[in-house]
Design goal:
Length: 260
């Protein structure tokens, strides 16, 4: 039987030239952030009309502002404008998903360093995915699974250990014990590009038997980092314990992707 074929893959790295010839782009972004922050503040103060006006102004300047879309959906829902709120939450969640997928692929192609992700936008996107599910009246089982997975994916990347007591392997009485793992999906794009390599993650295994957060140490392009994260979220395990009680522990998880 023939051995595994070795494939070499070359990518042409585009030369990105940033020309700061005028203030227009930067000023517009600053204006968008100011309007968004003002809208969020007005929402928290209970001024829904003022919040909606400011958030819509922010979105007009930057249509990909996840937090602006999220809080616009929240404000509209408070006014019982459920159809408009649903559209805003859908936009927030899908935009957050697209942005993080782009960042993960760029990190895998261009850099060996762990990717830095916009955590506030990820959490806002995850919460919007939750709200989309809550506001939708008739969703198929496939759609429910799609939106649940989207929320879990965004939340895992946006979450941290805040408010959780986390222990190292040396501090626990018994370490996390993995019961079962599923193989990550090999995307068609990655298969077509013959992507080979490893995805290395660090996951926070919680005391409740759920994976609460994921950090990316080494990724792969064409959606493989994401499928590895989703596989990690499906891991069944017995939590670590300390002095007889279940506790949280960070644990490295690695997946190999190979075409033979």
């Amino acid at each position: 039987m023939a051995g595994p074929a070795r494939f070499a893959r070359a990518r042409l790295l585009p030369l990105v030239v940033v020309a700061l010839t005028m203030c227009a782009g930067v000023c517009a972004q600053n204006d968008s952030s100011a309007e968004r922050d003002r809208g969020i503040q007005l929402y928290k103060q209970g001024d829904l009309n003022g919040a909606i006006q400011s958030l819509q102004a922010a979105i007009k300047r930057d249509k990909d502002d996840v937090s602006a879309w999220h809080y616009l959906g929240e404000a509209l829902a408070q006014q019982a404008k459920n159809n408009e709120a649903l559209k805003a939450h859908e936009k927030a969640a899908k935009t957050a998903e697209a942005q993080v997928s782009y960042l993960l692929d760029r990190q895998a192609i261009y850099s060996d360093k762990p990717v830095s992700l916009p955590k506030t936008q990820l959490i806002d996107g995850a919460q919007s995915a939750d709200q989309y599910l809550a506001l939708s009246q008739k969703l198929s089982a496939r759609k429910i699974n799609e939106w649940t997975s989207r929320a879990q994916f965004l939340r895992a990347l946006g979450s941290d250990a805040t408010g959780m007591e986390v222990f190292s392997g040396k501090e626990v009485t018994t370490k996390v014990r993995i019961l079962s793992m599923t193989e990550p999906t090999y995307t068609e794009e990655a298969r077509g590009n013959r992507v080979n390599g490893r995805v290395v993650l660090v996951a926070l295994f919680g005391p409740d038997g759920r994976v609460h957060a994921v950090r990316i140490i080494k990724g792969l392009p064409d959606g493989l980092t994401r499928t590895a994260i989703e596989a990690t979220q499906r891991i069944k395990f017995v939590p670590a314990t300390k002095d007889g009680r279940p506790v949280s522990q960070w644990l490295e998880v690695e997946y190999g992707f190979h075409i033979y």
